[in-house]
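BUG: 3D viewer hangs when loading the predicted structure for this chain

Environment: internal workstation, default settings.
Expected: structure renders.
Actual: progress bar stalls at 90%.

Input used:
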Amino acid sequence: MSDFKFNSKRGQAMLGYCPRYYENSRVFKSYLQASGEEMDVLKPGVEGVLDQFFVSTATWGLDRWEQELGLTSYTGKPYEQRRSKIISKIRGIGTVTVKLVKIVAEAYDGGTVDVTGRPDQYWFTIRFVDTRGVPPNIGDLMEIIEEIKPAHLGVTYEYRFLIWDELDGLNFSWDSLDNENLTWDQLEGFASKTTMILTGCEQ
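C-alpha cells produced before the viewer hung:
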C-alpha cells in the first residue's frame, strides 16, 4: 500500500468513494490531493455566500439587505445592530398594532419589551423590561418606529436604571465595590431587577 499522506481532508474523503485498488496509486492520490485542496478553499466560500441569504448570518451581504429595504447603509456598525434594524424593518411591514410594535422593538433590544397603548390620548409607550439603561441602538429603533407608526400617534420610551436603594440591598461595602473595578454599566449588572423607571425621549 502507498505511504502517500493527504494534507486535504476532502481529498482523503474522496478517496473513500473510489475503488480500493486506487489506494495503492500515488498518481491518483496526488490528483485527489490537488482536487481536495481546491475544494477546501471553495467550500467555505460557498457557505459564506449562502450565509448572505439569511439576515441572521449575513455579514458583507447586509449592504444588499439594507439597499433592498430602503434603509440607510450602516456600514461600520456592529453586525448585530444592522441585523436588528433589517429584521425590524421586515417585521414592520403590515398593519400597525401593539403586537407588531412589540415584535419590532424586541428585535432591536433582544429582550422583553412592553408596549402600552393609550388610544384615547393618541399615544403609546415602549418600556424596556430586561435591558438596563438606554439600549445602544435606541436611535435606530426610534427611526423605525417613526416609519411604521401612524403619524397622529405619539410615543414615549421608558428605560430601567439601577437605583441607590437597590444597590444598598445588595449589602456591598464601598471598598468591596471599588475592588471590583467596575464601570457603572457593569455595576448595574449586579442587580437582578429594579423598581425605578425613568421616562426617556417623547416624540
